[in-house]
Amino acid sequence: MDQTPARLRAPSPRIARGACIGPVLAALALTGCKGTQSALQPAGPQAEAAASLWWLMLWGAVAVLGLVMLLALLAARLPRHERPAPRLLLIVGGGVALPIVSLSALQIYGHSLGAPSVEARAAGLQIRVSAQSFWWRFSYPQHGGLHSAGVLHLPVGETVDLTLASGDVIHSFWVPRLAGKRDLIPGRATHIQLRADQAGVFRGQCAEFCGAEHARMSFVVVAQPRTEFDAWLQAQARPAAEPTTALARRGRRAFEQAGCGACHRIRGTGAWGSAGPDLTHVASRWRLRRAHTPEAAGGLGAAEGMADWIRRAHQAPDWLAEETVAPASGQRLRAIASYLQGLE
Length: 344
Hints:
CATH topology of the domain at 126-237: Immunoglobulin-like
Structural class: alpha+beta
CATH class of the domain at 126-237: Mainly Beta
Helix content: 40-55%
CATH architecture of the domain at 126-237: Sandwich
Oligomer: single chain
């Protein structure tokens, strides 16, 4: 028989494994507190409110867990001859009264935080958000109806009212560092307010499964000082730049001959389609998305990346996109890519 004192014995393998796994799991959990899509790193008041609610729920859950474990420990160490607590008190107090009081308080607090972010406002910057499989259109009706696809520009420190609509199925607008989620329902307009208190680029995502390419339905939000935002609006109001190289001019002719203008608009040209994104200033928008969304980068150089982006846009099956023109390839594709890269 082992006569080694219990306090000097090595811990059992199960305890040792638990002691090793615990810190690893804690470290993995902490990695979710920061990042481009972390709701725990807020950059606006709506996101700050959501993060505060999350921390409140976390520490509340920790307190409840601690209380339950304490009661379980006391029950385990209680001598058998001791009289247990009245069962009715435990059932009514712990099983009915405590959940009702705590959850009611949490509901009231959460509603007070979330209500202001979904109310429509009559003044301030208005932006219309349209979602369809599988991209986002942002329109600025107060500025000549300017359009941007996949990139939303906001002035820092100003509350912006977004009117959300879906053209096909239910989507969900979510910028974790700026606000909570808001569904876009076909045939119904919903609203959300955003305010960025710091300049930067924030990633957004469709948070409602909407089809095969749902994971790629992302966008970026650019929060910039008012002077830079106004300069961006002025730049977006200008017509498309004329191609400056022979390859780009061939690309413009190929773009027109392929019928791309039936779906896409390039202001200042004969392309006035509205079914697809406005490509008047696609180059700057595309580079921004490529820099901040991994699914848009693909590990390719700028020229190859633009051509690959065009190629992949035509690889959707028929039930995802009804193509009326044949996709470009080879020299024709490179020429169109060169033309689009010049559309700043």
